[in-house]
Amino acid sequence: MKIFKYTAVLLVILTSSCNKWLDLLPENEQVTERYWHTKEEVEAVLGSAYVTLQKSVNSMIVWGEARGNMLSLGGFLNTNLINLKNLRVLPSNDLVKWATFYEIINYANMVIRYAPDVVERDPSFNPAIMNSFLSEAYFLRGLSYFYLTRNFGEVPLILNPYMNDSQAYELPKSSQEGVFKQIEFDLTTALESSKDVWPSVWETKGRSTTNAIHAVLADMYLWTEQYDKAIISCNAILQSGRVGLIEGVINTRNHWFTIFNPGNSNEGIFEIQFDYTKQQTNNFTTIFGSSYNWIISPYGVELFQENFEDIRGAGATYSAADLKLWKYIGGEGNTNVPRAQSDQNFILYRVADIYLMKAEALIMSGEDSWPVALELITDIRSRAQISRPVTPGSNELEMLQVLMDERAREFVGEGKRWYDLLRVAKRNNYEYKDYLIEEVMEGMAGGSAPVIRSILMNENAHYLPIHEDEIKFNRLLEQNPYYAPLN
Length: 487
Hints:
The chain is mostly helical. Helix content is 47%, strand content 4%. The protein has helices spanning 39-55, 57-65, 79-85, 99-119, 127-152, 176-192, 201-206, 210-223, 227-238, 284-287, 298-305, 326-329, 351-364, 370-383, 396-410, 417-430, 433-442, 449-457, 468-473; strands spanning 71-73, 249-250, 253-254, 268-272, 294-296, 346-350. The strands form 3 sheets. A two-stranded antiparallel sheet has the order 1-5. A two-stranded antiparallel sheet has the order 2-3. Residues 1-28 have low confidence and may be disordered.
Protein backbone atom coordinates (compact mmCIF):
# COMPACT_ATOMS: atom_id res chain seq x y z
CA MET A 1 0.00 0.00 0.00
CA LYS A 2 1.66 3.19 -1.14
CA ILE A 3 0.68 5.23 1.89
CA PHE A 4 3.42 3.40 3.77
CA LYS A 5 6.06 3.20 1.02
CA TYR A 6 8.39 5.66 2.66
CA THR A 7 11.67 5.53 4.52
CA ALA A 8 10.86 6.14 8.15
CA VAL A 9 13.40 8.65 9.40
CA LEU A 10 13.49 9.15 13.13
CA LEU A 11 13.82 12.89 13.01
CA VAL A 12 13.99 13.93 16.58
CA ILE A 13 14.53 13.22 20.24
CA LEU A 14 12.23 14.85 22.74
CA THR A 15 13.73 15.83 26.06
CA SER A 16 12.32 17.90 28.86
CA SER A 17 15.38 20.16 28.82
CA CYS A 18 15.13 21.23 25.17
CA ASN A 19 12.58 23.67 23.82
CA LYS A 20 12.12 22.11 20.39
CA TRP A 21 12.55 18.75 18.71
CA LEU A 22 16.19 18.24 17.77
CA ASP A 23 18.79 16.11 16.07
CA LEU A 24 18.53 13.63 13.24
CA LEU A 25 18.77 9.94 13.99
CA PRO A 26 19.91 7.18 11.58
CA GLU A 27 17.46 5.94 8.98
CA ASN A 28 15.75 2.56 9.28
CA GLU A 29 16.82 2.05 12.88
CA GLN A 30 13.32 1.42 14.16
CA VAL A 31 13.12 -2.21 13.01
CA THR A 32 12.00 -4.42 15.84
CA GLU A 33 15.23 -6.41 16.33
CA ARG A 34 17.48 -3.37 16.72
CA TYR A 35 15.16 -0.82 18.20
CA TRP A 36 12.62 -0.39 21.01
CA HIS A 37 15.01 -0.86 23.92
CA THR A 38 15.00 2.54 25.62
CA LYS A 39 12.62 5.30 26.62
CA GLU A 40 14.49 7.70 24.33
CA GLU A 41 13.82 5.50 21.31
CA VAL A 42 10.09 5.48 22.02
CA GLU A 43 10.15 9.24 22.48
CA ALA A 44 12.02 9.71 19.21
CA VAL A 45 9.34 7.87 17.23
CA LEU A 46 6.65 9.91 18.96
CA GLY A 47 8.58 13.07 18.14
CA SER A 48 8.72 12.05 14.50
CA ALA A 49 4.92 11.98 14.45
CA TYR A 50 4.82 15.59 15.62
CA VAL A 51 7.38 16.63 13.01
CA THR A 52 5.28 14.94 10.32
CA LEU A 53 2.32 16.92 11.63
CA GLN A 54 4.29 20.04 10.68
CA LYS A 55 4.46 18.72 7.11
CA SER A 56 0.68 18.31 7.06
CA VAL A 57 -0.15 21.99 7.56
CA ASN A 58 -0.45 22.87 3.88
CA SER A 59 -3.00 20.07 3.40
CA MET A 60 -4.87 21.25 6.49
CA ILE A 61 -5.18 24.74 5.02
CA VAL A 62 -6.03 23.68 1.46
CA TRP A 63 -8.53 20.98 2.44
CA GLY A 64 -10.21 23.21 5.03
CA GLU A 65 -10.33 26.48 3.10
CA ALA A 66 -10.14 26.06 -0.69
CA ARG A 67 -13.73 24.88 -1.09
CA GLY A 68 -15.06 27.42 1.40
CA ASN A 69 -15.94 31.06 0.81
CA MET A 70 -13.55 33.13 2.94
CA LEU A 71 -10.46 32.91 0.72
CA SER A 72 -9.93 33.75 -2.94
CA LEU A 73 -7.06 32.79 -5.20
CA GLY A 74 -4.26 35.33 -5.10
CA GLY A 75 -1.39 36.11 -7.42
CA PHE A 76 0.23 32.70 -7.86
CA LEU A 77 -1.89 30.55 -10.16
CA ASN A 78 -1.31 26.88 -9.41
CA THR A 79 -3.36 24.58 -11.64
CA ASN A 80 -3.98 22.00 -8.92
CA LEU A 81 -5.13 24.71 -6.54
CA ILE A 82 -7.40 26.33 -9.12
CA ASN A 83 -9.03 22.99 -9.89
CA LEU A 84 -9.59 22.17 -6.23
CA LYS A 85 -11.02 25.63 -5.55
CA ASN A 86 -13.42 25.20 -8.48
CA LEU A 87 -14.40 21.67 -7.38
CA ARG A 88 -12.94 20.18 -10.55
CA VAL A 89 -10.38 18.08 -8.76
CA LEU A 90 -9.21 14.83 -10.38
CA PRO A 91 -7.57 11.76 -8.81
CA SER A 92 -4.27 12.91 -10.34
CA ASN A 93 -4.27 16.17 -8.33
CA ASP A 94 -1.27 16.14 -5.97
CA LEU A 95 -3.17 18.20 -3.39
CA VAL A 96 -5.32 15.18 -2.48
CA LYS A 97 -2.39 13.03 -1.37
CA TRP A 98 -2.94 11.72 2.13
CA ALA A 99 0.48 10.12 2.83
CA THR A 100 1.59 12.45 5.65
CA PHE A 101 -1.47 11.64 7.74
CA TYR A 102 -0.91 7.92 7.35
CA GLU A 103 2.74 8.47 8.22
CA ILE A 104 1.63 10.05 11.50
CA ILE A 105 -0.73 7.12 12.04
CA ASN A 106 2.07 4.66 11.47
CA TYR A 107 4.35 6.35 13.99
CA ALA A 108 1.47 6.31 16.47
CA ASN A 109 0.82 2.63 15.75
CA MET A 110 4.49 1.86 16.41
CA VAL A 111 4.38 3.51 19.82
CA ILE A 112 1.10 1.84 20.75
CA ARG A 113 2.39 -1.58 19.69
CA TYR A 114 5.99 -1.53 20.97
CA ALA A 115 6.22 0.94 23.87
CA PRO A 116 4.85 -1.57 26.43
CA ASP A 117 7.72 -3.95 25.58
CA VAL A 118 10.29 -1.27 26.40
CA VAL A 119 9.07 -1.05 30.01
CA GLU A 120 10.65 -4.45 30.61
CA ARG A 121 13.92 -3.45 28.93
CA ASP A 122 14.52 0.03 30.31
CA PRO A 123 14.22 0.54 34.10
CA SER A 124 13.85 4.31 33.59
CA PHE A 125 10.76 3.77 31.45
CA ASN A 126 8.12 3.23 34.09
CA PRO A 127 4.44 2.51 33.30
CA ALA A 128 3.37 6.08 34.11
CA ILE A 129 5.72 7.55 31.50
CA MET A 130 4.75 4.86 29.02
CA ASN A 131 1.04 5.57 29.47
CA SER A 132 1.68 9.26 28.92
CA PHE A 133 3.41 8.46 25.61
CA LEU A 134 0.59 6.12 24.65
CA SER A 135 -1.89 8.93 25.34
CA GLU A 136 -0.05 11.14 22.85
CA ALA A 137 0.03 8.37 20.27
CA TYR A 138 -3.71 7.72 20.56
CA PHE A 139 -4.37 11.47 20.28
CA LEU A 140 -2.26 11.82 17.13
CA ARG A 141 -3.86 8.78 15.53
CA GLY A 142 -7.38 10.00 16.34
CA LEU A 143 -6.61 13.50 15.06
CA SER A 144 -5.18 12.13 11.80
CA TYR A 145 -8.19 9.92 11.13
CA PHE A 146 -10.47 12.87 11.88
CA TYR A 147 -8.82 14.82 9.06
CA LEU A 148 -8.93 11.84 6.71
CA THR A 149 -12.58 10.91 7.16
CA ARG A 150 -13.82 14.51 6.90
CA ASN A 151 -12.09 14.83 3.56
CA PHE A 152 -12.34 11.38 2.02
CA GLY A 153 -15.32 9.82 3.79
CA GLU A 154 -14.47 6.11 3.93
CA VAL A 155 -10.75 5.41 4.38
CA PRO A 156 -8.57 2.39 5.23
CA LEU A 157 -8.49 1.94 9.00
CA ILE A 158 -4.98 0.79 9.88
CA LEU A 159 -4.27 0.03 13.51
CA ASN A 160 -1.02 -1.96 13.28
CA PRO A 161 2.43 -0.59 12.45
CA TYR A 162 4.08 -0.97 9.09
CA MET A 163 7.72 -1.79 9.78
CA ASN A 164 9.26 -2.71 6.41
CA ASP A 165 8.54 -3.03 2.70
CA SER A 166 8.16 -6.83 2.87
CA GLN A 167 4.76 -6.40 4.49
CA ALA A 168 1.75 -6.36 2.23
CA TYR A 169 -0.64 -3.57 3.14
CA GLU A 170 -3.57 -3.86 0.80
CA LEU A 171 -6.66 -2.90 2.73
CA PRO A 172 -10.17 -1.85 1.74
CA LYS A 173 -11.87 1.26 3.02
CA SER A 174 -13.72 1.19 6.33
CA SER A 175 -17.11 2.83 6.72
CA GLN A 176 -17.16 6.42 7.91
CA GLU A 177 -19.19 5.30 10.91
CA GLY A 178 -16.47 2.78 11.78
CA VAL A 179 -13.75 5.40 11.44
CA PHE A 180 -15.61 7.81 13.72
CA LYS A 181 -16.00 5.05 16.31
CA GLN A 182 -12.26 4.43 16.20
CA ILE A 183 -11.57 8.17 16.57
CA GLU A 184 -13.78 8.30 19.65
CA PHE A 185 -12.05 5.21 21.07
CA ASP A 186 -8.59 6.68 20.46
CA LEU A 187 -9.41 10.04 21.99
CA THR A 188 -11.24 8.70 25.04
CA THR A 189 -8.36 6.25 25.58
CA ALA A 190 -5.92 9.16 25.29
CA LEU A 191 -7.79 10.99 28.06
CA GLU A 192 -7.06 8.23 30.58
CA SER A 193 -3.37 9.13 30.91
CA SER A 194 -3.27 12.63 29.46
CA LYS A 195 -1.29 15.50 30.93
CA ASP A 196 -2.85 18.82 31.83
CA VAL A 197 0.43 20.69 31.28
CA TRP A 198 4.00 20.00 30.19
CA PRO A 199 7.21 21.52 31.61
CA SER A 200 7.32 24.33 29.02
CA VAL A 201 4.75 26.56 27.35
CA TRP A 202 5.55 25.34 23.83
CA GLU A 203 5.04 21.73 24.93
CA THR A 204 1.76 22.53 26.70
CA LYS A 205 0.52 24.18 23.50
CA GLY A 206 2.26 21.86 21.02
CA ARG A 207 1.87 18.39 22.53
CA SER A 208 -1.21 16.42 23.41
CA THR A 209 -2.93 17.58 26.60
CA THR A 210 -6.25 16.90 28.25
CA ASN A 211 -7.66 20.11 26.77
CA ALA A 212 -6.36 19.31 23.28
CA ILE A 213 -8.01 15.89 23.41
CA HIS A 214 -11.31 17.38 24.56
CA ALA A 215 -11.15 19.95 21.75
CA VAL A 216 -10.91 17.27 19.08
CA LEU A 217 -13.59 15.24 20.86
CA ALA A 218 -15.97 18.22 20.89
CA ASP A 219 -15.37 18.78 17.18
CA MET A 220 -15.89 15.10 16.41
CA TYR A 221 -19.11 14.99 18.48
CA LEU A 222 -20.50 17.90 16.45
CA TRP A 223 -19.84 15.89 13.29
CA THR A 224 -21.54 12.79 14.69
CA GLU A 225 -24.46 14.84 16.07
CA GLN A 226 -23.75 13.88 19.70
CA TYR A 227 -24.43 17.34 21.06
CA ASP A 228 -24.61 16.53 24.77
CA LYS A 229 -21.16 14.95 24.60
CA ALA A 230 -19.83 17.95 22.66
CA ILE A 231 -21.03 20.26 25.44
CA ILE A 232 -19.38 18.06 28.09
CA SER A 233 -16.00 18.26 26.31
CA CYS A 234 -16.33 22.01 25.80
CA ASN A 235 -17.18 22.50 29.48
CA ALA A 236 -14.18 20.39 30.50
CA ILE A 237 -11.92 22.87 28.70
CA LEU A 238 -13.70 26.02 29.84
CA GLN A 239 -13.71 24.86 33.46
CA SER A 240 -10.13 23.55 33.45
CA GLY A 241 -8.58 26.83 34.58
CA ARG A 242 -5.72 26.21 32.15
CA VAL A 243 -6.81 28.42 29.23
CA GLY A 244 -9.07 31.40 28.66
CA LEU A 245 -10.33 33.91 26.14
CA ILE A 246 -7.72 36.68 25.94
CA GLU A 247 -8.63 40.37 25.91
CA GLY A 248 -9.14 41.98 22.52
CA VAL A 249 -7.55 45.37 23.20
CA ILE A 250 -4.99 46.33 25.84
CA ASN A 251 -3.81 49.96 26.01
CA THR A 252 -5.07 50.58 22.46
CA ARG A 253 -3.03 47.61 21.21
CA ASN A 254 -4.81 44.93 19.17
CA HIS A 255 -4.16 42.14 21.62
CA TRP A 256 -6.23 39.65 19.55
CA PHE A 257 -3.35 39.64 17.08
CA THR A 258 -1.00 38.14 19.69
CA ILE A 259 -2.86 34.84 19.25
CA PHE A 260 -0.90 34.53 15.99
CA ASN A 261 2.21 36.55 16.75
CA PRO A 262 3.98 35.53 18.86
CA GLY A 263 1.51 32.66 19.40
CA ASN A 264 1.20 30.17 22.26
CA SER A 265 -1.13 32.62 24.03
CA ASN A 266 -3.32 31.74 26.96
CA GLU A 267 -6.08 31.17 24.39
CA GLY A 268 -4.16 28.50 22.48
CA ILE A 269 -5.11 24.88 23.11
CA PHE A 270 -3.23 22.98 20.41
CA GLU A 271 -0.79 24.69 18.03
CA ILE A 272 1.55 23.02 15.54
CA GLN A 273 4.88 24.51 16.55
CA PHE A 274 7.49 26.13 14.32
CA ASP A 275 10.75 27.79 15.40
CA TYR A 276 13.12 29.58 13.02
CA THR A 277 16.06 29.15 15.41
CA LYS A 278 15.66 25.37 15.11
CA GLN A 279 15.32 25.42 11.31
CA GLN A 280 11.62 24.66 11.69
CA THR A 281 9.79 26.92 9.27
CA ASN A 282 6.60 26.88 7.24
CA ASN A 283 5.70 28.43 3.90
CA PHE A 284 3.18 30.98 5.20
CA THR A 285 5.09 34.03 3.97
CA THR A 286 5.03 32.44 0.53
CA ILE A 287 1.46 31.19 0.28
CA PHE A 288 0.03 34.26 2.03
CA GLY A 289 2.73 36.80 1.22
CA SER A 290 5.27 37.06 -1.60
CA SER A 291 4.27 34.39 -4.14
CA TYR A 292 0.86 34.22 -2.58
CA ASN A 293 -1.86 31.65 -3.20
CA TRP A 294 -4.56 33.15 -1.01
CA ILE A 295 -6.18 36.48 -0.22
CA ILE A 296 -9.35 37.19 1.70
CA SER A 297 -12.42 36.87 -0.50
CA PRO A 298 -14.81 39.76 -1.32
CA TYR A 299 -17.40 37.89 0.73
CA GLY A 300 -15.01 37.84 3.70
CA VAL A 301 -14.40 41.57 3.42
CA GLU A 302 -18.16 42.17 3.37
CA LEU A 303 -18.61 40.15 6.56
CA PHE A 304 -16.04 42.27 8.38
CA GLN A 305 -17.49 45.51 7.05
CA GLU A 306 -20.80 44.74 8.74
CA ASN A 307 -19.13 45.90 11.98
CA PHE A 308 -16.67 48.76 11.52
CA GLU A 309 -15.41 48.33 15.11
CA ASP A 310 -14.29 44.73 14.58
CA ILE A 311 -10.62 44.56 15.54
CA ARG A 312 -10.22 41.30 13.62
CA GLY A 313 -10.79 42.94 10.21
CA ALA A 314 -8.53 45.16 8.10
CA GLY A 315 -5.06 45.47 9.64
CA ALA A 316 -5.41 42.26 11.61
CA THR A 317 -6.90 39.33 9.69
CA TYR A 318 -6.09 40.93 6.34
CA SER A 319 -4.28 43.89 4.82
CA ALA A 320 -6.66 46.50 3.46
CA ALA A 321 -4.12 47.47 0.78
CA ASP A 322 -3.72 44.10 -0.95
CA LEU A 323 -6.14 41.74 0.91
CA LYS A 324 -3.32 39.39 1.97
CA LEU A 325 -3.80 37.48 5.21
CA TRP A 326 -1.95 39.73 7.65
CA LYS A 327 -2.58 37.37 10.57
CA TYR A 328 -0.02 35.02 9.02
CA ILE A 329 2.54 37.44 7.55
CA GLY A 330 2.37 40.43 9.91
CA GLY A 331 4.64 41.14 12.83
CA GLU A 332 1.96 43.20 14.58
CA GLY A 333 -1.68 44.00 14.15
CA ASN A 334 -2.72 47.36 12.69
CA THR A 335 0.82 48.17 11.51
CA ASN A 336 2.79 47.54 8.34
CA VAL A 337 5.56 45.65 10.13
CA PRO A 338 6.03 42.22 8.46
CA ARG A 339 6.96 39.10 10.38
CA ALA A 340 10.67 38.46 10.04
CA GLN A 341 10.64 34.65 9.76
CA SER A 342 8.27 31.96 8.50
CA ASP A 343 7.76 30.29 11.85
CA GLN A 344 4.21 31.15 12.83
CA ASN A 345 2.45 28.36 14.66
CA PHE A 346 -0.57 26.86 12.96
CA ILE A 347 -3.40 26.82 15.48
CA LEU A 348 -5.73 23.85 15.33
CA TYR A 349 -7.79 24.74 18.40
CA ARG A 350 -8.12 27.78 20.65
CA VAL A 351 -10.63 28.89 23.26
CA ALA A 352 -12.75 30.97 20.85
CA ASP A 353 -13.37 27.74 18.96
CA ILE A 354 -14.60 26.08 22.14
CA TYR A 355 -17.05 28.94 22.83
CA LEU A 356 -18.48 28.65 19.34
CA MET A 357 -18.52 24.84 19.24
CA LYS A 358 -20.48 24.85 22.49
CA ALA A 359 -22.84 27.45 21.01
CA GLU A 360 -23.37 25.21 17.99
CA ALA A 361 -24.16 22.20 20.16
CA LEU A 362 -26.62 24.30 22.17
CA ILE A 363 -28.38 25.53 19.04
CA MET A 364 -28.78 21.95 17.89
CA SER A 365 -30.06 20.90 21.34
CA GLY A 366 -33.29 22.85 20.98
CA GLU A 367 -34.80 26.32 21.19
CA ASP A 368 -34.62 26.44 24.99
CA SER A 369 -30.79 26.47 24.71
CA TRP A 370 -30.59 29.30 22.18
CA PRO A 371 -30.25 32.17 24.72
CA VAL A 372 -27.11 30.57 26.20
CA ALA A 373 -25.73 30.00 22.70
CA LEU A 374 -26.27 33.69 21.91
CA GLU A 375 -24.40 34.65 25.08
CA LEU A 376 -21.37 32.65 23.92
CA ILE A 377 -21.49 34.22 20.45
CA THR A 378 -21.80 37.66 22.08
CA ASP A 379 -18.69 36.95 24.19
CA ILE A 380 -16.68 36.45 21.00
CA ARG A 381 -18.16 39.57 19.37
CA SER A 382 -17.51 41.66 22.49
CA ARG A 383 -13.89 40.52 22.59
CA ALA A 384 -13.68 41.80 19.00
CA GLN A 385 -15.00 45.17 20.28
CA ILE A 386 -18.33 44.88 18.43
CA SER A 387 -20.96 46.86 20.33
CA ARG A 388 -23.95 46.07 18.13
CA PRO A 389 -26.10 43.32 19.71
CA VAL A 390 -26.34 40.10 17.76
CA THR A 391 -29.72 39.57 16.12
CA PRO A 392 -31.12 36.15 17.06
CA GLY A 393 -32.55 33.87 14.41
CA SER A 394 -36.18 32.79 14.43
CA ASN A 395 -35.45 29.17 13.49
CA GLU A 396 -32.61 26.65 13.72
CA LEU A 397 -31.03 27.47 10.37
CA GLU A 398 -31.09 31.21 11.04
CA MET A 399 -29.42 30.61 14.41
CA LEU A 400 -26.79 28.48 12.71
CA GLN A 401 -26.26 31.27 10.16
CA VAL A 402 -25.55 33.74 12.99
CA LEU A 403 -23.06 31.29 14.48
CA MET A 404 -21.39 30.43 11.18
CA ASP A 405 -20.94 34.10 10.25
CA GLU A 406 -19.12 34.64 13.53
CA ARG A 407 -16.96 31.55 12.98
CA ALA A 408 -16.17 32.85 9.51
CA ARG A 409 -14.85 36.15 10.89
CA GLU A 410 -12.95 34.61 13.78
CA PHE A 411 -11.16 31.80 11.92
CA VAL A 412 -10.25 33.14 8.46
CA GLY A 413 -7.53 30.94 6.95
CA GLU A 414 -7.34 28.62 9.96
CA GLY A 415 -8.48 25.58 7.97
CA LYS A 416 -12.05 25.43 9.29
CA ARG A 417 -14.47 27.07 6.86
CA TRP A 418 -15.24 24.14 4.52
CA TYR A 419 -15.70 21.80 7.45
CA ASP A 420 -18.07 24.26 9.13
CA LEU A 421 -20.25 24.53 6.03
CA LEU A 422 -20.24 20.79 5.35
CA ARG A 423 -20.96 19.89 8.98
CA VAL A 424 -24.06 22.11 9.03
CA ALA A 425 -25.25 20.85 5.64
CA LYS A 426 -24.98 17.15 6.55
CA ARG A 427 -27.21 17.34 9.61
CA ASN A 428 -30.41 15.31 9.58
CA ASN A 429 -29.56 13.60 6.30
CA TYR A 430 -28.49 16.78 4.48
CA GLU A 431 -31.41 18.87 5.64
CA TYR A 432 -29.35 22.01 4.99
CA LYS A 433 -27.67 21.13 1.71
CA ASP A 434 -28.98 24.35 0.12
CA TYR A 435 -27.19 26.33 2.83
CA LEU A 436 -23.87 24.74 1.85
CA ILE A 437 -24.45 25.48 -1.82
CA GLU A 438 -25.43 29.12 -1.29
CA GLU A 439 -22.50 29.76 1.01
CA VAL A 440 -19.93 28.17 -1.32
CA MET A 441 -21.37 30.15 -4.22
CA GLU A 442 -20.57 33.36 -2.33
CA GLY A 443 -16.89 32.58 -2.77
CA MET A 444 -17.00 31.64 -6.45
CA ALA A 445 -16.60 33.64 -9.64
CA GLY A 446 -19.92 34.34 -11.36
CA GLY A 447 -19.15 32.51 -14.60
CA SER A 448 -18.58 29.18 -12.87
CA ALA A 449 -21.69 29.37 -10.69
CA PRO A 450 -23.98 26.98 -12.61
CA VAL A 451 -21.31 24.29 -12.83
CA ILE A 452 -20.37 24.61 -9.15
CA ARG A 453 -24.00 24.43 -8.12
CA SER A 454 -24.57 21.22 -10.09
CA ILE A 455 -21.45 19.63 -8.58
CA LEU A 456 -22.48 20.48 -5.03
CA MET A 457 -25.90 18.93 -5.55
CA ASN A 458 -24.12 15.56 -5.62
CA GLU A 459 -23.30 14.67 -2.01
CA ASN A 460 -20.48 12.36 -3.12
CA ALA A 461 -18.70 15.40 -4.58
CA HIS A 462 -18.35 16.84 -1.08
CA TYR A 463 -15.43 14.45 -0.55
CA LEU A 464 -12.04 14.47 -2.24
CA PRO A 465 -10.90 11.76 -4.65
CA ILE A 466 -8.37 9.20 -3.50
CA HIS A 467 -5.13 9.90 -5.34
CA GLU A 468 -4.57 7.66 -8.34
CA ASP A 469 -1.28 6.34 -6.93
CA GLU A 470 -3.09 4.92 -3.91
CA ILE A 471 -5.55 3.10 -6.17
CA LYS A 472 -2.65 1.76 -8.21
CA PHE A 473 -0.74 0.32 -5.25
CA ASN A 474 -3.70 -0.96 -3.24
CA ARG A 475 -5.86 -3.29 -5.31
CA LEU A 476 -8.50 -3.45 -2.55
CA LEU A 477 -8.98 0.29 -2.50
CA GLU A 478 -11.97 1.62 -4.42
CA GLN A 479 -12.19 5.17 -5.70
CA ASN A 480 -14.75 7.45 -4.07
CA PRO A 481 -18.04 7.17 -6.03
CA TYR A 482 -18.15 10.64 -7.59
CA TYR A 483 -14.66 10.17 -9.07
CA ALA A 484 -14.77 6.50 -10.02
CA PRO A 485 -15.54 7.21 -13.70
CA LEU A 486 -12.48 9.48 -13.81
CA ASN A 487 -9.95 6.87 -12.67
